[in-house]
Design goal:
- By secondary structure, this protein is mostly helical.
- The protein is 64% helix and 0% strand.
- It has one domain: Na+/H+ antiporter like fold, CATH 1.20.1530.20.
- The chain is globular.
């Protein structure tokens, strides 16, 4: 495809999505499904005007997925409830640790005993498919920093934390230290500068992107897990900023039986009296995340061949979503007080996508 054709395709797709967003919210599909369908249409499966080879361009795909996941994790971290209470985080911590280990074991066992894969390859496949995705799951995650829905919070926090659990203990602990320290430091520095006279203006978008870059680079140097660090850097940034402005009082979570459908009205957070880096950077990050999602899903659609599908892949996907995910969630939340209805919803919304693709390319 020529540059002009790409501009026409992407521009037309963005216009269509922008004009039909209200209609799509009433349909049982997400925007990612639309992007994927368009990618399949222009790819080798149908019109064959575009083909993206993930093996030949694996380095590019790895970099793209890495950046998108980092941006998504930052956005997710900013939306976490304030103040931080360990009791609220118990369920997602169990999901990101016990449930993920159980998911890896279940997928590995199925891959070895049913599909006949070697044990090493089965464990690797389980590790790739176990983490839930923070990018494609945005429709069921926390919508804004004031979202008090327990289900959305649990799914968002799980997606933010489980990426770091597949690595060694040092990588996880170091990531937490680097992320929390960096986020808190930026919050203190920005608050100090904004309190100066005359008024000191800050570029919140740049600060947010800079925090992501610095934290991730420090983790690479320290052999720590950067995804986890970026998520908790955003959490610490938001927590510290609101504590500095004495805005830590929040209403309790919504009841588990509350209406959490996409059409249900969600209470909007109160407008902050003081500007914050987390609040100022969030809107830009969400827009950047959406644009990145369009590009990546189109590329994925352009990789698919109709004759590449097999029953073994379908069976594995069915096992992952209908057996491994619900069972691993049940195991992880066994000792918690999460209502059974909420557990069932968590077990169903185990979205996989861009994160797993990054691990595959890595």
């Amino acid at each position: 495809m020529t540059h002009a054709q790409w501009f026409l395709l992407v521009g037309g797709l963005l216009l269509t999505m922008g004009l039909t967003t209200a209609l799509l919210k009433r349909l049982p599909i997400t925007p990612a499904i639309v992007y994927l369908a368009v990618g399949v249409l222009i790819g080798p499966s149908v019109f064959n005007v575009f083909h993206f080879n993930p093996l030949k361009d694996s380095a590019l795909l790895e970099a793209l997925t890495e950046v998108v996941v980092l941006i998504s994790l930052f956005s997710a971290g900013v939306k976490m409830p304030v103040p931080f209470k360990l009791a609220q985080w118990r369920a997602p911590i169990m999901l990101a640790s016990v449930s993920m280990v159980a998911s890896v074991a279940l997928v590995a066992a199925f891959a070895c005993w049913v599909m006949g894969l070697p044990i090493g390859l089965g464990v690797l496949l389980g590790a790739i498919l176990a983490p839930t995705d923070p990018v494609l799951a945005t429709e069921v995650q926390s919508r804004h920093p004031g979202d008090r829905d327990r289900l959305r919070f649990t799914l968002t926090a799980e997606a933010g934390m489980n990426d770091g659990r597949v690595d060694v203990v040092w990588a996880t602990v170091a990531a937490l230290v680097i992320g929390v320290a960096s986020g808190a430091a930026l919050a203190w520095a920005s608050a100090k500068l904004r309190s100066n006279t005359p008024k000191h203006e800050l570029l919140d978008d740049f600060l947010g992107l800079g925090l992501i870059g610095v934290v991730y680079a420090l983790c690479v140097f320290a052999a720590a897990w950067g995804f986890l660090a970026v998520f908790f850097a955003a959490v610490a940034l938001r927590q510290t900023e609101l504590r500095l402005h004495n805005k830590t009082a929040r209403a309790p979570f919504n009841q588990p039986n509350a209406d959490t459908s996409p059409e249900a009205p969600t209470p909007q957070p109160a407008q902050a009296e003081h500007p914050t880096v987390s609040g100022g950077a969030l809107i830009f990050k969400e827009h950047l995340e959406r644009l990145s999602e369009v590009v990546l899903i189109l590329l994925i659609g352009g990789t698919l061949f109709i004759n590449s599908w097999s029953w073994s892949v379908v069976i594995m996907a069915a096992f992952l979503f209908f057996v491994a995910r619900p069972l691993s969630v049940a195991i992880g939340l066994l000792a918690t007080r999460v209502p059974w209805r909420t557990r069932g919803m968590i077990g169903w919304f185990g979205v996989r996508g861009i994160g797993s693709l990054y691990y595959l390319m890595y």
